[in-house]
Amino acid sequence: MPINLKTPVVESREQRLGTIVGWDGSASELARQSAYARGCGSGEGKGCGQKARRICELEGPFTQGSVCSEMMVENQAGHILDAVLIQHAPIGCGAGQVSYNLRFRNGLAARHKPVQNIHQICTNLTERDMVFGGVAKLEQSVRDAWERHHPKAIFIGTSCATGIIGDDVDGVASAFEAELGIPVIPLHCEGFKSKHWSTGFDAAQHGILRQIVRKNPTRKQDDLVNVINLWGSDVFSPMLANLGLRVNYVVDLASIEDLAQMSEAAATVGFCYTLSSYLAAGLEQEFGVPEIKAPMPYGIAGTDAWLREIGRVTHREDKAEAFIAAEHARIAPRLADLRRRLEGRKGYVATGSAYSHGLICVLRELGIEVNGSLVFHHDPVYDSQDPRQDTLTHLIDTYGDVPHFSVGNRQQYQFYALLQRVKPDFILIRHNGLAPLASRLGIPAIPLGDEHHAVGYQGILNIGESVLNILAHRKFHLDLAAHTKLPYKKWWLEQKDPFALAKRVE
């Protein structure tokens, strides 16, 4: 389905990709039902004469906790260096500014950039505004943003509240864009419009594609590669420098000029297709910048394929092969030692979907048994619809099936039974809200605050070292488990099926 930049409103992941947030089975069964195609029922899928598959989504009676699309707009548009994000929302929606400011500052420090605070403003809608409208507050906030920061762009993020009352955010943005002479970009990210937060990534990237990326660039930079990431450490620059390539990190921690020059790049890559799918596909469709279509750079097989495809697209095949051979030789002794020391260990992965596929590849590369994983959502297909980006099938074909492969939107009450199924020695987790429950079961967690920790050949060694380190502290978690009580009734702890509530007829 082509990306439509004629409208300011992005299509949700459910509409565009068929995203689900509840499912339970094996990885191979999920891949079979998905068939790397968007569709349902008995219609034709992918235009190839093959019947489209239907994923029967499990819908629980309540949601215990998650995040929303607006928060993902905060960590995308809100982390652009010379821009301002206005949250047109009640003040509660602005509570995330505290944690995102911490990540922003830490990310800048890790990239050796001047540390500063985020530039975000909340319009602080009240009950009165819900009745009479909040346009006046929005207009004042745009003026405040300009007078305080003189930014090169202003983003306006909507909220559930503004979606309900119907404020004309697009009209305000257009008027101020003409007045101020800078892009003023509406980002429609009402939380209730999508059941998974990843639609918020798409909303921010949609606005950037429409109003920031340079149209009809006068030059091409054939040694520049767009790297779509969050705030992780700089691991892509040294990797791609071996191929004679420069890195343009986007969206987090980027400047408006960094975003504008994306149309001049030779290619686009990302550390996770959940994050990069929309922007990379849009850059290829609208500006002719090729998206690298290969498995993600996790594990030896994935990193090999990823580098070879970059080499092919940028006409640097010889450099890619030389770098691959050198890295294989470099990591071989330490990898062999890590495999010996980690033999017999069992791991569990709880992260976003594509990222989880990559992390399981890395653990399997280390010889660690992985019989279970919780992914926070599942995209049957990514925006390119190219099967070379089918990360789930790559995992299964290269490293084998995962018997207990569950899809759930970070529900605490399900996590106990999920871990009881496989009883891992440790877990890898990206969003740390579930980690305390694992600790109370005696299971230590490796929180992946730096999303690039597992990328590439060095990433395999990084994860191996982290596993050894966390296992050395397992006694603490076992002591914690012996002296704490879980907040669930006995009848729920006896349930073997984490999705029992979703399956109950009543």
TrEMBL record:
Single GO molecular function: oxidoreductase activity
InterPro entries in alphabetical order: Nase/OxRdtase_comp1, NifE-like
Residue span(s) of domain Nitrogenase/oxidoreductase component: 78-471
Protein name: Nitrogenase molybdenum-iron protein alpha chain
Species annotation: Magnetospirillum fulvum
